[in-house]
Amino acid sequence: MMTFTDQLATELADIESAGLTKRERLLTSAQGPHITTSQGPALNFCANNYLGLANHPEIIQAAHDGLDHAGFGAASVRFICGTHEEHRNLEKEIAEYVGTEDAILFPSCFDANGALFEVLLTADDAVISDSLNHASIIDGVRLSKAKRFRYANRDMAQLEEALKDAQGSRRILIITDGVFSMDGYFAPLEEICDLAEKYGAAVAVDDSHATGFIGPKGAGTHARAGVADRVDILTGTLGKALGGASGGYVAGPQEVIDLLKQRGRPYLFSNAVAPSLVAGARVALRLAKEGDDLREQLTKNADHFRSRMAHDGFDLLPGSHPIIAVMFPGEDGALLASKIADDMLKLGVYVTAFSFPVVPRGEARIRVQLSAAHTEADIDACVDAFVASRDRIQAEDSK
Ligand SMILES: *Cc1c(COP(=O)(O)O)cnc(C)c1O
Question: For the chain, what are the domain ranges?
Fold first, then answer.
């Protein structure tokens, strides 16, 4: 009989032989546009460091001060003795920034999405979810007893069908990512809100790839789409544009926040976010709010990358988000994308290739993420590496 670990070894071997093993490269420097990995220095084009705040001196100073002032950790969940006044300050500032009554912090956005559906929805209710929503939404929805409906990515006809099928439920909640992370596509929030109003549903948006840099003042996709007062609930992360440390939140009406504080399991049964991270995140939030110059630079950088890559004959998914998918379609695309990404790292440019099952079969891509901290020279070096690696590998493959 196979032992427990032998069975796991077989599973690992299957992952490896399918070419799906994820290997972690070790960073030996802080996060930023220029990093050092165990393989040497590299230009980094795969972090969620959209505003370049991950290594910002004011944030680091605030976190240091937070350590000195409030100690290393809360050693308690929030409701027992883990709520520092800084937690409440940050929650109120998040709510004010995204335009809701209040907000509740979680250890991560994964946890925020893990709490939301179970608390708000029962078997009498319905939840309608975009097919490309983040894994944490999928898991969070699974935890609730609500009836589940799914619509194909951004397909408003299917959403309307689901809303019709869900009629008769006590409450209906539509949940979508504000930005889909593999494509950089925005959710059609205006149409979603129109349908929600027509069929009496509430709307929740996970703005993890938006808060801080999308829409006026970076408030998010709801602000960008002009539906800030029509989206009911937002979830988001402190682990991407807002400094890149950790923490997540739900922002929404007071009743939603109050009920999550009573019943949200990842809130009730997991340690409070460390005070130093809260102090750093408060400064990150302020820098984001005041960061029109950073957002302008980020937009300029994304535009520059898109136009140079298109000029050099690459196939990009259209759009304006700093997530830019460089497509390698077809049967051989997955191998080509991964060879090019590996080769680019040798040239000192770090990008990541994605293939099935992370993206649909035949739609392999290298996902590039721009930051306000990239210079034009960084971006030009990235494009030059794309061209050099593609040309070299295509020449090799055609031999
Ligand atoms: C990154 C991400 C999360 C997870 O955020 P963490 O705070 O790192 O747990 C959740 N939802 C979406 C859409 C994300 O992109």
Answer: 27-51+291-397, 57-289
